[in-house]
Amino acid sequence: MSDSSHLDRMQRKKEVIDERIARASEERGVLILLKGNGKGKSSSAFGTLARSLGHGQKGAVIQFIKGRRETGEYLFFRDHPQLDWHIMGQGFTWETQDRQRDIEAAEAAWEIARGLLEDPAYNVIVLDEMSYMFKYDYLDTAPIVEALLRRPAHQNVIITGRTMALPLQEIADTISTVQDDRHAFRNGVKAQAGIEY
Amino acid sequence: MSDSSHLDRMQRKKEVIDERIARASEERGVLILLKGNGKGKSSSAFGTLARSLGHGQKGAVIQFIKGRRETGEYLFFRDHPQLDWHIMGQGFTWETQDRQRDIEAAEAAWEIARGLLEDPAYNVIVLDEMSYMFKYDYLDTAPIVEALLRRPAHQNVIITGRTMALPLQEIADTISTVQDDRHAFRNGVKAQAGIEY
């Protein structure tokens, strides 16, 4: 491509993008859903959290499934003064194999989430792997949708998990589906510290 | 679902998953590509970086497009002792509108990346928005594929960007495509600190 046709193309692109930016003028917190089978949903939520903390905002994470305290994300973030990190899960549901225990853990996690969603001090709340709570009927969506709709106007919420309940999709501002095009695990590479946990 | 059918289902699931884990026994660094139009690619890379740093690993980030130093991710990570952060871009290409300047910035960024890909001290390297360098023909893929293949065996590399050059896809271990199902921006919500930057 010549320098001048590049310039033409980029000038047109800049006009379109500048116009879109001018139209997007509303300032408010958003509900972001990160779903799908691909790698990168929870890590995306943690990256956004880092971004928020970088701006001096206050955040919270509730892990609905993970029960381990040796993950890199927890080791990295746990001492941050502007962040609460709640590990509420008892492990993956096929590890616990105990439906009643899972339901109790889910309800305890939701009680904490409910409090955060009423607290204007929190700018960003990550509900990590919450979607499994609906898939396995551990939690009802109705009270959760209600709490999300009533939350402080500036508060951002990120929910992750493979399959996302439809009532959450109906009220979300941003939805990304992470497609699993390829995964090293299927080619025999072991889950490793820093990448998978 | 009854507790006993839940237990059956979870026991079968555990068997399948345990077998898969046993088969995945290779330990080595992986090349991860995060592509697609949806929100969450760079933030996923930064989240994985946090995870790696949490395990005491050493990391580096090269931002090929972004030129600003006021992003939340930079403010958050810049002082970490185990991390180098290089902001090499001059802004988005439709902002600079100068093809020669963009090419020079791309080449300078690649020179730094090449050095990191030869250095076994680095466990994880994020090449943020590098894919645009190929889309606009600012860089050739051949020397980059070669450097990636020759890198230290334990080194993880994450490359982000909307469209990913095919030669990179051919050698990648993990590829996730982030689909844009919905974006708050299109519904008039302004890009905001902590979420978009």
Automatic annotation (TrEMBL), chains A, B:
It comes from the Bacteria. The gene is cobO. InterPro entries: CblAdoTrfase_CobA, Co_AT_N_dom, P-loop_NTPase. Pfam families: Co_AT_N (PF12557), CobA_CobO_BtuR (PF02572). This is Corrinoid adenosyltransferase. Belongs to the Cob(I)alamin adenosyltransferase family. Its EC number is 2.5.1.17. It is found in: Cytoplasm. NCBIfam families: cobA, PRK05986.1. GO terms for molecular function: corrinoid adenosyltransferase activity. Residues 6-21 form the Cob(I)alamin adenosyltransferase N-terminal domain.
